[in-house]
Amino acid sequence: MPKSMATPALIADTTVHDFTPAHGDDPWRIFLHVPAKPAPDAGWPVLYMTDGNAVIGTAVDVVRAQASYPAGTNVCEGVIVAIGYPVEGAYDPLRRSWDLGPPPGKIYPPFYDGTPDVRTGGAGEFLAFIEDELKPWVASRARIDESRQALYGHSFGGLFALYALFTRPLSFRTWIAASPAIYWEDRAIDRFLEAFEAAVPAGPAVNVILSAGEYETEKLAPFQIGAEDEEKRLQQKQMTRTDEFARTMAERLAALPGVSASFELHASETHMSILPVTVNRAVQAAFAVRGSG
Question: Taxonomically, which superkingdom (predicted)?
């Protein structure tokens, strides 16, 4: 057997920073990808992403694979800012529930015995951190094109992306809400949507991409048919209605001035398998050479 030496596998041109906010609460883990070359004159386009632990590796490799052939992919290089948590796993369920849930939020039983109650409703504070602390910090480390900033989120993160659009619509130019949990807490997001509809701000046009997987419709994935939890899944689908709610949200937004909104249904994908597909779509939209991606 040939000899080999094990070394850590690193994410190319990416650094990790545990960022404690000014008010001193628990830190967020920031994964920062900056291309290893001089920035263009206008600065780098930037893609901000929630659930950073789960998406950073995919996002960076998507850019590496496609940006080297922009004539065939329409993808250029850019800065990626993936916001996660100082944990070993892909998610911190307790903290993300608070950070990504629109206010006012509710209190739920613990995920596990002996752990704290689950609280939602902290999306306003999380968005303020991104705008007031994280964006200036990123700008101190890379030249940024402030007119080309995008926000991606999946599931609860997709709900957060919509909340951010409705409450701070000038913060980003491109918004990608993948499998957004629009149903959450009796569609609490609707009151923010209605305020946004009543006063769409003047400014550059925004591009909004909503999406869902084929098996987030009324259909079950083939491997779910006949499983022990088949009936429970079918009942859950009647509540979440991910594809229906995302599609109608896109139609509603597309009717507004200065908003380009679309809905995409991804074949053969479930709520979780859609993650890398939509990370790819986020990179294509955020780092498009021509057009909005």
Answer: Bacteria
